[in-house]
Amino acid sequence: MRCIAVANQKGGVGKTTTSVNLAVALARSGLDVCLVDLDPQAHATLHAGVQPGAHPLSAWDLLAGETTLAEVRVACGGGLHVVPSHIDLSAAEMALATRAGRESILRRRIEADPACRGDAGAVRHDVMIIDCPPSLGLLSLNAMAAADEVLLPLQPHFLALHGLSKLLETMELVAERVNPRLRLLGVVLCLYESGTRLAGEVARDVEEYFRAGNARHPILSDGRVFQSRIRRNVRLAEAPSFGQSIFDYAPDSHGAQDYAALAAEVLQAAAVPERDAARRAA
Fold first, then answer.
1. Is the pLDDT higher at 155 or at 271?
2. Strand duo 80-83 + 74-77: pairing
3. What is the pTM assigned to this prediction?
4. Using CA atoms, how far apart are residues 77 and 63, in angstroms rounded to an integer?
5. What residue spans of the chain are helical by DSSP H?
6. SS3 of 222, please?
7. Which residue range is the domain that position 95 belongs to?
8. How many domains does the structure of the chain reveal?
């Protein structure tokens, strides 16, 4: 199973919108997808059509108790499962402060789950998407400890670049101390306005940043700025209030086109390292 954490400590950059619509786009391509909402605000849960609190168990029980992933996830149809969030997750930092290995709880739950391991006879998840909170605290660390890759949504604004280096530094620490397989999948530019000079300048700055960063740390070597730009689109802002993805709410909109294109790029990004590994083995 491929596990992707969608992370950015800055709020309002399209992180949850990307998590949900990418998960649905991948499910629509025929994959079995599990969306894990680790944000106490539960916006991804709502966006996916699951009412927070309607299910007796949530991501809080997964991290703070002995609940299994199978007991928490909710089937949403169309190849999508959701691990719903709950406001109780906001207390995770304090509640888990004294627990040994607290940054790896989610990884252990995933490793123990038959669907994530691909056991014979179990429903097999092909991809897991983890929606992180807008912070670099314990919940985001759990996501990075469990993930293979990090997808970074970024608003094309100069202020949005300020926290980029801090997030990458956190990824480097997680890779060195907790999860050596972690790598940067890439940056997706959200709320993009192609008619502005600023958007193009920020895109070029980010590309240059990764060209310089590739020599600094190996986890950045596969990073890229995705060619798919998520254009500013009012339909994307409206869809969560109906508990629908953009593909259900406005399938002909620019938002649906952009997230379908991003999903295709994400799938292609997975194929390249697999081909390289096959060549090395030969």
1. 155
2. antiparallel
3. 0.91
4. 25
5. 15-28, 43-47, 59-64, 69-72, 92-95, 105-111, 114-117, 138-146, 164-177, 197-213, 234-238, 246-249, 254-281
6. coil
7. 2-281
8. 1
Q: At 21, list the tokens.
A: 């619509």
CATH at 104: 3.40.50.300
Give tens-digit pLDDT for 122-156: 778 999 999 999 988 999 999 999 999 999 999 88
Query: Model confidence over 104-120: pLDDT tens digits?
Result: 999 999 999 998 988 77
Cα separation, 253 vs 121, in Å, equals 39
Angle at 164 between CA 162 and CA 168, to 5 degrees: 145
Query: 8-36 in b/e burial notation, b at 16+ Cβ within 10 A?
Result: bbbeebbbbbbbbbbbbbbbbbebbbbbb
Give yes or no for a contact between 202 and 162, defined as CB atoms under 8 angstroms apart: no
| The residue type at 175 | A
The SS3 call for residue 182 is: coil
Contact 37, 5 (CB under 8 A): no
